[in-house]
Design brief:
- By secondary structure, this protein is of the alpha/beta class.
- 36% of the residues lie in helices and 17% in strands.
- Helix 2 crosses helix 4 and helix 6 packs parallel to helix 8.
- The longest helix is centred in the middle third of the chain and has 25 residues.
Amino acid sequence: MTPEPKPATLQDYAGKPAVFKRVLIKLSGQALQGDELLSIDPDKIQAIANQVHTAWERGVEIAIVVGAGNIFRGVAGSTRGMDRSTGDYMGMIATVLNALALQDGMEKFGLDTRVQSAIHMQEVAEPYIRRRAMRHLEKKRIVIFAAGTGNPYFTTDTAAALRALEIGAEAILMAKRSFDGIYDSDPETNAEAVFLPRITHLEAIEQGLRVMDTTALSLCMDNGLPIHVFNMTNEVNIQRVLSGERTGTIVSSPAK
């Protein structure tokens, strides 16, 4: 009887060349949230930092945008009577908390890390300056972009698309906590939902699929920026994407 192959581990990818030179990883706030109602779980931070460390050792230049759903959602606040702009600013500040937690976790792995905030908080983070961010990446530092775009009514998805384009990232790696990619309907409510291994930006917009918001998808579509959507609970999925292996869903558009 042939033994089953052992599951891949981070060590299996250590030192392997990557097909990407520079990427932006989009993390949801929930990725930092623990199972015991902890808004920021040190174990989750450590697991993410470990995956990023392996990618960094492979020579990939890495930027990160993190959401704040584990702490506060501006849209949810506005539905309860809060002014939308106020709620969005509170959400932006919450992303700074998450970014600082990530920075701490990265530095425990020996990764030189910088947090750049779109809202000036000079005591805890650098202001976002594109050329400075590019220089950090060239020096192999991890750059975490916080506070979204600095403007209300724009999500961290849009911030991820914008920052990825500004720094010349070759792809957005969209790490999901619950699903292994994109489905044609919500798999939580529809057991017959069909997994989509590949889709175009326009199809995602037209079908209203929950990949990114429409503004972010349009930015990526207009500039030919691919999005790789995958489940981050499997620790090797980031490495698989970086190796060019098929995992999750690829959102792309034909070259113009």
